[in-house]
Amino acid sequence: MSELAELTESIKNGKRKIAVKIVTEELEKNTDAGELLAALVEGMDIVGQRFKNNEIFVPEVLIAARAMKESMTILEPILVTAGIKPEHKVVIGTVKGDLHDIGKNLVAMMLKGANFEVIDLGSDVAPDAFVKAAQESGAEIVAMSALLTTTMPSMRETVEALKAAGLSTKTMIGGAPVTRQYAEEIGATGFAADAATAVDMVRDLVSA
Amino acid sequence: MPVVRFYPTSQALTVPHGMRLLDVCYDAGVEITASCGGGGTCGKCRIKILEGDVPSGGGHDGALSKEELAEGWRLSCLIHVESDLTVDVSHIVKRRDQILTDLIPFDLVPDHGIYTVNAHLPEPELGKTLSDVERLQETLAATSAVTLNAGLIPYAILQSLPQHLRQSNGACRIVAEENRILTLLPAQDGDDENKPLGVAVDIGTTTVAAMLIDLESGHPLAVCSRVNPQTRMGDDVISRIAYARKGTSELKKIQSVILDALDAMVIELCESSGRQRENIARFTLAGNTTMQHLLLGIDPTPIAQAPYVPAVRDHVVLQSGHLQWQAMPGAVAEVLPAISGYVGGDIVAGIVATGIDRTDRNCLLVDIGTNGEIALASGGVLYACSTAAGPAFEGARIGQGMRASTGAISSVKWADDQLTIGTVDHAPARGICGTGLLDAVAALLHAGLLDETGRMLLADEMEVESDAAHSMAVLRMREATEGRYFVLAEDSPDFPDSPGCSEQGIVCLTQQDVREFQLAKGAIAAGILVLLEEAGIEPEDLDEVLLAGAFGNYLRGASALATGLLPPGVSLEKIRPVGNSALAGACAALLNRPVRQRARDVMRKARYVELSGSMAFQMAFAETMEFPVPE
Fold first, then answer.
1. Does the distance separating the beta carbons of A57 and B241 come in below 8 Å?
2. Considering A34, A51, A81, which residue would you say is the last residue of a domain?
3. Which CATH number covers residue A115?
4. Distance (Å, whole) CA A135 – CA B62
5. Is residue B240 a contact partner of residue B292, using CB atoms and an 8 Å limit?
6. How far apart are CA B16 and CA B143, in angstroms?
7. Residue A24 maps to which CATH number?
8. Plot region of B615 (φ>0 → left; ψ -120 to 50 → alpha; else → beta)
9. Model confidence, pTM
10. What domains does chain B contain, in order, with CATH numbers?
11. Are B410 and B433 in contact (CB under 8 A)?
12. Is the domain of A134 the same as that of A189?
């Protein structure tokens, strides 16, 4: 197995020590940082697919994401020097009135793993905070999460606030009680039922 | 107006145009489930259209397969009846009543301050300005050492007092609570049927239970339970709140359905014990904080939005007449105090019923419903939290999940290389209830058919294998395009297909079911770990682990440990089921004033630990979602 394939494998299996070791060694050998990044992203991609197919579950995704994160800590400065940076930015947060952020964190991690720049606003995020972050970052997508049916209206308010601010930012929503129908109803661009689908959705939206 | 006929009961209901079929089912007494609150997503409210025209579009395809649609299956929550229909509801069985009456403190000495006294008032005299009320006060003070507060005499009694006294030549019997008169009765020997009564109620999100109690002896006379009729407005607390916040009329409606149901239950209790509602002196009610708000008609919206603040935590005492319940004119209803928006009077009741508010030992009380409420007593301090476990243990979100009614797989054992299935009423298997789900997962773990990450293993992937486990895997572990599933029972009666299980006539546990289970049990276990950490103790330090509620009462402790629903370190012999501790606590508070005081002390002193947004909880949750590795 080549080192790059091994790197992909280590992310897939959540072996952070091996992943960090390979990245460190390969950088010493002057392997192209972009290729290392691609290998890492491929690993997280497989993780996302397996999650979607119910083969693995949240804990394994978290472990894989941690391996990805630690590898990126080493790789990132090199990527910056080489002028390689994520092409797309996503603002993400749990909407106002809702403190549940486990699902949102999972989506944020998977997006980072797919090489998006993620601006995570945390939980209980007011519509104007979403607007401000979208304006300042120039993000193409604002992603919102809600776990409670009672806080879903905050999604509508956020979508409307973004429009009112004259932003053409695309919006996507998710969370246990959220449905595609609700996304259509409030004029959100997209809906995702789980974290892996959310990554696919973001990819679709930025390339659309 | 259109007529809806039910098969196989032949019951027929004439309904207004446009009435939702789900509501028609409820009105007909069909105990249908609507986990998503009638949102058209869960597929549990499915019924089969035998006659009549209901198009298959309009959202039915979201939760039903093409084959099912072709067979006539539809979602009753999406149908608005416009023309005559015949509906097959033969797949919906009446649930078995599971009323847990153990732990009710029958031996508790009544100390409720309610008593009956006879009085014979002297004739009124010309020249004395003593009113009827004053003569009553004086007589009672002189003959029975009772001090009545004239200002607290119920209006209805004031209205009837003059006539009552003159018809009986001044003889009467009163029932009073401390210095308040509750009712005025004809003077006669107190027959058993006229003894003062009390009603204790546990308002669960799913099930309501009520008990009629003789206040003199403290003995229970009758008990009954029903499905909470608010279920049709949503299965869980959040969807009920979402319904109630739509407007004043919705709030009124969701309140009135529970008030009406309780009224009907009290009638049933009185009829079965030959008592009269006019003799009810007091009601004591406990529920989760949202149920208590809805009972009182108080808008619960803020409970569902951070920072999750209830309108009232303290106990609420009001005239039962405000709730339109028939009882003594002065009867009151007390709703027990709550600890927080998500730890309600039912948990406070459970705490006082089990006495963990008065112990120096380390005691854990876990009540597993849609929310898992957890209380921990350690070092004389009470800690409490609530975790969103989801409704998996009540059968929702599980492909073939159902309540513990006839035909539900309620136990699964893997012993001596044999898989043994037990069902409710020993009927043919139709689905899985909470305890069956727990046992099934434990059995698969034991047999090595499930790894610690929760992945189902095919025969060729198994690492540890007795030959027997291997042959079971070959036989029962199957794979379809939707994923893997494990066959629990074959040759089941005709039961609609479930998501992820493409075979007809079987009851199976799917990979997706295992994932839902992991979320639910992980949330409970993580909540327990966070409270233990807050108290600075380890699972090994627990002296008692008390399990409340129907699921907690019937679950197998060994399965709870094997699956990690209870964290590793808890030992089996410390686990004890405590039945319906909320109803027990409501009874205790009804009968005993010091218990009411303790409930309020619990409200004031308990340390509530907020889990949403808590990093400690998230860390624990990530670990507890996996299964413990057997030693």
1. no
2. A81
3. 3.40.50.280
4. 37
5. no
6. 61
7. 1.10.1240.10
8. alpha
9. 0.87
10. 3-88 (3.10.20.30), 114-192 (3.10.20.880), 196-345 (3.30.420.480), 357-389+518-624 (3.30.420), 393-494 (no CATH)
11. yes
12. yes
With H, G, I as helix, E, B as strand and everything else as coil, classify residue B97: coil
- Sort out which chain B residues have CB atoms less than 8 A from A98's CB and list them: 305-306
CA pair distance B41, B192, nearest whole angstrom: 53
Compare all CA atoms of chain B with the CA of A53 and give the residue at the minimum distance: B483
Give the Å distances, CA to CA, from B415 to B155, B443, B469: 67, 9, 10
- With contacts defined as CB-CB under 8 Å, which chain A residues touch B622? 58-59, 62
Residue B193 CB-density burial (10 A; 0-12 exposed, 13-18 middle, 19+ buried): exposed
- Hey, are the CB atoms on B238 and A100 less than 8 Å from each other? no
Nearest to B223 by CA among B68, B55, B94, B102: B102
Which residues of chain B have a CB within 8 Å of the CB of A99? Answer: 306, 610, 612-613
Whether residue A69 sits in one domain with residue A47? yes
DSSP notation for B546-561: EEEHHHHHHS-HHHHH
- Domain end (from A81, A106, A131): A81
Same domain, A62 and A102: no
Number of domains chain A is built from: 2
| Domain span holding position A30 | 3-81
CB < 8 Å to B625, chain A: 57-59
B305, B515, B622 member nearest A97 (Cβ) = B305
A94 and A73, same domain (yes or no): no
B258 pLDDT band, cuts 50/70/90, is very high
If you measure CA to CA, which chain B residue comes closest to A104? B613
Kindly list the residues of chain A whose beta carbon comes within 8 Å of any beta carbon in chain B: 53-60, 62, 96-102, 105, 123-124, 147-151, 177, 179
Give the model's pLDDT for residue A106.
Answer: 92
Residues A190, A113 share a domain: yes
- Helix, strand, coil shares of chain A, percent, nearest 5, are 60, 10, 30
Please tell me the predicted confidence (pLDDT) of residue B68: 83
A27 plus A98 within the same structural domain: no
**Count of helix runs (H) and strand runs (E) in chain A:** 9, 5
**Is there a single domain that holds both residue A93 and residue A77?**
no
How would you classify the pairing of strands B180-185 and B171-177? antiparallel
> Are B488 and B421 contacting, i.e. CB atoms less than 8 angstroms apart?
yes
Pairing mode of beta strands B408-415, B418-423: antiparallel
- Tens digit of pLDDT for each residue in B198-257? 999 999 998 899 999 999 988 889 999 888 999 888 888 988 999 999 999 999 999 999
What angle is formed at CA B138 by the lines to CA B133 and CA B140, rounded to 5 degrees?
A: 95
Q: Which residue has the tokens 């929503």?
A: A173
Nearest-neighbour CA in chain B from A112: distance (Å): 19
Same domain, A70 and A166: no
**Nearest C-alpha in B relative to A182:** B39
Tokens of B95: 């649930």
User: What's the pLDDT score for residue B97?
Assistant: 47
Q: B533 vs A63, B2, B541, CA distance in Å?
A: 23, 60, 12
pLDDT above 90 coverage of chain B, percent: 60
- Smallest Cβ–Cβ distance between B455 and the set A55, A149, A179 belongs to A55
| Contact assignment for B613 to A101 by CB distance below 8 Å | yes
